[in-house]
Design a protein that fits this description.
Largest sheet: 5 strands, antiparallel
Helix content: over 70%
Low-confidence stretches: 1-7, 268-274, 334-341
Oligomer: single chain
Number of strands: 7
Shape: elongated
Structural class: alpha+beta
Strand content: 5-15%
Order of helices and strands: HHHEHHHHEEEHHEHHEHHEHHH
Length: 546
């Protein structure tokens, strides 16, 4: 028996008649959720209060005066201005006043704090972005934006939108007027300060010229520029002289070395000869020669009291002492002898060739040094001439130059502020006369005729469909759970036996009649209750609407 209980047979494929039998057997479980969904959706749809959306369109009127004549001071983008104005218009103080004036959200005000009611109203207000309106060929497209407000009372929604539109227009005028007036006051203060500064400098300059009448040369700036250029050339020539002098000293040192080498090669074989000068002595001699040349160059331009000359004299004295010590050390050295070998003749020829080459280079350096000295002398003469001109200028010329420069800067600043001040005054006057950019109602607040939500047809249709689907699912679940044989097709499919006849199910008539009465009673009460609920919600909707 246990094995027979666990034995399962797959269900046979169902046809149209089977589906009809299923619907007939479970019609109550299908009609019940369907009717319940209908009742619930109708009651919910008609008890849900209507929400009306009123909207108004505000256009941006451009500046009436051409911008090439009068330029507006307020250069903020319109989208940014609308966002800024929306923050002011939708502030807590403004919305609280509107709520109390029009008695909005009475139920919410009784159970919620005012901050929550204001936040709810702020969500119901929609400020659209700046768009372009005007699509016909005759009308010119203008930028505009919309204000929308959703509320259960369409008349109050219209009044609120009208109020918000007025506040937007007033706020725009206030912002532009305040911005223009503030800019004008700021520039006026700076203009006054700049004017006083320029007048003060004009007075100082006039007084200075009166006291130094006839002693104000016009070529001071040109002389100074020329003198600066000559000083730059003199610096370059001095650097070139130093370079030539150092190169000549190096060549003379090479020439001396070649000469000593030639003299040593001319000594007879086996005779001792004096050693060449040491590196220390040669370095001391080069330093003394270089300082002598530098001192001579400085004395051509300056006297011995000049600090640079005094410094060079001190360095020359130290170099001479160093040279004396080097000579003593070099004299104390013992001469060395060397033997002339077979390559002396060849070395002597090479040294003589190098000697002549270095002599030629020294001669070229002398010529270059002479040319540079001539140019330096000419530039020094020009500098002395310019220095004499500048020294003839009164010592107060520096003060005159500074006063002129300060006066010119103050004048340029005043002229710039004066131009800006004029533009600001024109812009302020334009805003006062309402010729500037402004907001204007393009479409006044609309009185909505139909609610935007709820969409009752959609709600009822969706609710009924949900009830039908739920009933079908319940019927399908009950059919899947019932494993009994319902008809002759099930008997043939599951028993595989021939059917000779069938006996109908016989029940007690009283039991059957009682069951039917109870079913009809239940369905009648449910239908009556559903109809009453639906009728009551519909009546309530139309009564409150009226």
């Amino acid at each position: 028996m246990q094995g027979q209980d666990s034995f399962s047979v797959p269900r046979r494929a169902m046809d149209i008649e089977d589906y009809i039998d299923v619907l007939r057997r479970h019609k109550s479980w299908i009609i019940g959720p369907l009717f319940a969904g209908l009742v619930a959706s109708v009651v919910g749809a008609f008890l849900w209060p209507n929400t009306y959306v009123s909207s108004a369109t505000i256009k941006v009127v451009p500046q009436a005066v051409p911008e090439n004549l009068i330029q507006s001071i307020v250069n903020q983008a319109m989208s940014d201005r609308i966002t800024s104005m929306a923050q002011t218009v939708l502030s807590r103080a403004v919305l609280t006043t509107i709520i109390q004036s029009y008695e909005l959200y009475p139920r919410d005000r009784n159970r919620l704090p005012m901050e929550d009611v204001v936040e709810k109203m702020r969500k119901d207000v929609q400020i659209g972005g700046v768009l372009t309106y005007g699509t016909t060929s005759t009308s010119k497209a203008v930028p505009a934006f919309q204000i929308q407000y959703a509320y259960t009372d369409r008349y109050k929604a219209q009044k609120v939108v009208s109020e918000l539109s007025t506040k937007f227009i007033n706020e725009s005028l206030r912002e532009r007027s305040q911005g223009t007036h503030g800019t004008r006051e700021l520039l006026h203060d700076q203009w006054e300060s700049s004017k006083k500064e320029m007048e003060s400098l004009d007075s100082k300059l006039a007084d200075f010229r009166t006291r130094n009448m006839g002693r104000l040369p016009d070529e001071v700036n040109a002389n100074l520029s020329q003198m600066n250029a000559l000083q730059s050339q003199l610096t370059s020539l001095s650097a070139a002289q130093s370079r030539v002098s150092q190169e000549k000293i190096g060549l003379e040192t090479q020439l001396r070395i070649f000469k000593d080498s030639m003299n040593s090669l001319k000594e007879p074989v086996g005779v001792e000869q004096v050693l060449p000068k040491s590196d220390k002595l040669l370095e001391a001699e080069r330093e003394v020669a270089q300082l002598d040349k530098q001192l001579a160059a400085l004395r051509e331009h300056y006297q011995d009291t000049y600090p640079g000359v005094q410094t060079t004299l001190s360095m020359l004295s130290s170099a001479k002492k160093k040279l004396e010590h080097a000579q003593k050390d070099d004299a104390a050295r013992k001469p060395e002898a060397r033997q002339v070998n077979s390559s002396i003749a060849r070395e002597q020829r090479d040294i003589e060739a190098n000697y002549k080459r270095v002599e030629g280079q020294i001669a070229a350096k002398d010529v270059e040094s002479t040319e540079l000295a001539k140019q330096v002398s000419q530039i020094n003469g020009s500098l002395r001439n310019l220095q004499g001109r500048i020294e003839a200028t009164p010592l107060s010329e520096k003060e005159n130059t500074e006063l002129m420069r300060d006066r010119d800067l103050a004048k340029a600043k005043f002229q710039d502020l004066d131009v800006k001040m004029t533009k600001t005054e024109l812009s302020d006057e334009m805003e006062k006369r309402r010729f500037g950019e402004s907001l204007e109602v393009l479409d006044p607040a609309s009185l909505p005729q139909t609610p935007s939500k709820p969409q009752r047809e959609v709600i009822i249709g969706v609710g009924t469909a949900i009830g039908l689907v739920l009933g079908m699912l319940i019927a399908g679940a009950r059919e899947m759970k019932d494993t009994s044989l319902k008809n002759l097709k099930d008997v043939r499919a599951y028993t595989q036996l021939p059917i000779l006849g069938s006996v109908p199910l016989l029940e007690n008539d009283l039991v059957v009649k009682r069951r039917k009465r109870l079913a009809w009673l239940g369905w009648s009460l449910a239908t009556l209750a559903g109809i009453i609920l639906m009728t009551g919600s519909v009546v309530y909707y139309y009564v409150t609407k009226a």
